[in-house]
Amino acid sequence: MRFLLAAAVLAIVPLPASADDSSASQCLSFLSRDWDISDQEQFQRDQRIWRLSCQRALFADPENPKIITSLGKAWSSMGFDNISLPLTRKAAAMGDTEAMFDIYTMHFSFSRHLDRDPRVTREEGAAALRRAAELGHPAAIQVMMQRLERGDMIKRDLKEAVVWAERAMKNPPKDSYTGDTEVALGRLLIKLDDPKQRQRGMDLLVGTKRSDAAAYFADAIRPTDPVRARKIYEDVLSSQEGHAAPALADMLFKGEGGPADPKRAVDLLDGGSWFGDSPWVRAYYGRLLVEGKYVKPDLQKGVEYMSYMMQWSIEWRHEVMDLLARYPNLRLSYPDGMYYDAIEAVELGEPGAVMALVNLNLSKNEQFRDLEAGCHLAQWAAENGFEAAKARLADCTPVPGTMR
After folding, report:
1. Where are the domains of the chain?
2. InterPro entries, alphabetically (predicted)?
3. What phi-psi label fits residue 385: left (phi over 0), alpha (psi between -120 and 50 degrees) or beta?
4. Which of 64, 109, 333, 344 is the most exposed place for a label (fewest CB within 10 A)?
């Protein structure tokens, strides 16, 4: 560790005997720079200036956490994570929230792989994110809200997500637009069981006068006022196609809030409409391909389209996993990310995650079949109250890996 920190300060060029405040100012200015990478030569020159100015500043002020954070970012931008990460951890230990957020980013963006050890573990990344949010880092607050709503890395908790959304309203990220935090909080509140909280969420959404808020408001009133909800989806269709098109199509299929029109519903979702470029719309069309009721069935294409939603929804991921388990010939083009997320969901205790992975591991789908892992997980699940797992133990006699 000491060698790496020294290398970060001394590497490549000799330093001057003294450094003034201009080096520190220049070093820190790079933290808020809007980078243009179209001119690679200039970009690389700027990276070098960034690193050198921070090295000089750190030589003069070796315990300044913001300078340490900026130097860590400079090294990281050049691909030297072996030097960057110790610096970032040091700055985080000194209380720098930007460094804490960088540790989270190093996990979430660069450490989620099955085939190699993580640069930063999930536990370290999650702890750093939470601490940065607690100390008021605006981006960390927003990400905490998102992770608690969607899952991945941190177990979902809608009520806690609301808490962080409230804080985001008071301390919004610098790049947010007017109404962003209100829409985020309103979207969460309408999912709660408490009628007062749901009404508060609807009031927030209406108050923003934004089309995305209108689509969420339609979600909230659809069970009690489907006619109005359907009209709202129609009104915002051109600007909120990813949200409104699937919801409106569902109502058209069911004849909810107005006459049924399956043909138009299909047109809203298929690739023939301009909405078809939306991954959300494409995923819902994938369901139609799997069901085969309104369009010619195509299981393989359907499951590929449905997989587009897996990064936003654990339920969609479980739906895809179920299809892969039931139809052994289906394949995913990029299976590792889904498999990593599925294992993580089990470790976090997400509802439905254990049996989704057991069924996939014990299926005949060669892309995901892992009898030993599936049987050990099924055995653990059966011992811990998962009734459905007991039926799967019939496929595991004896459990692989325990044979004498």
Report:
1. 1-107+124-136, 164-237
2. TPR-like_helical_dom_sf
3. left
4. 333
**Using an 8 Å Cβ cutoff, are 45 and 25 in contact?**
no
C-alpha distances (whole Å) from 310 to each of 338, 342, 355, 371 are 8, 10, 17, 24
Tokens, residue 71: 């130097």
- Which backbone phi and psi does 2 adopt, to 5 degrees? -60, -40
Contacts of 105 (CB under 8 A, 6+ apart): none
19 or 216: which leads in pLDDT: 216
What CATH architecture applies to the domain 1-107+124-136? Answer: Alpha Horseshoe (1.25)
Percent composition of the chain: helix, strand, coil (DSSP 3-state, to 5): 70, 0, 30
Sort 25 into a burial class: Cβ within 10 Å, 0-12 / 13-18 / 19+: exposed
Read off the pLDDT of residues 240-283 as tens digits, 9 standing for 90 and up.
Answer: 999 999 999 999 999 999 999 999 999 999 855 555 568 889 99
How many Cβ atoms from other residues are within 10 Å of residue 129's Cβ? 26
| Contacts of residue 129, Cβ cutoff 8 Å, sequence gap at least 6 | 100, 101, 103, 104, 140, 143, 144, 147, 153, 154
Residue 116 CA to residue 62 CA, distance in Å, equals 33
In this prediction, residue 34 has a pLDDT band, given cuts at 50, 70 and 90, of confident
Closest CA to 189 of 167, 159, 218, 210: 159
Residue 94: CB partners within 8 Å, gap ≥ 6? Answer: 63, 65, 68
Token pair, residue 40, equals: 């690679």
Q: Which of 72, 74, 96 is nearest to 84 (CA)?
A: 72
Contacts of 304 (CB under 8 A, 6+ apart): 286, 332, 333
Are 144 and 130 in contact by the 8 Å Cβ rule? The answer is yes
Q: Which two tokens stand for residue 233?
A: 């989806």
Cβ within 8 Å of residue 255, ≥6 positions away:
none
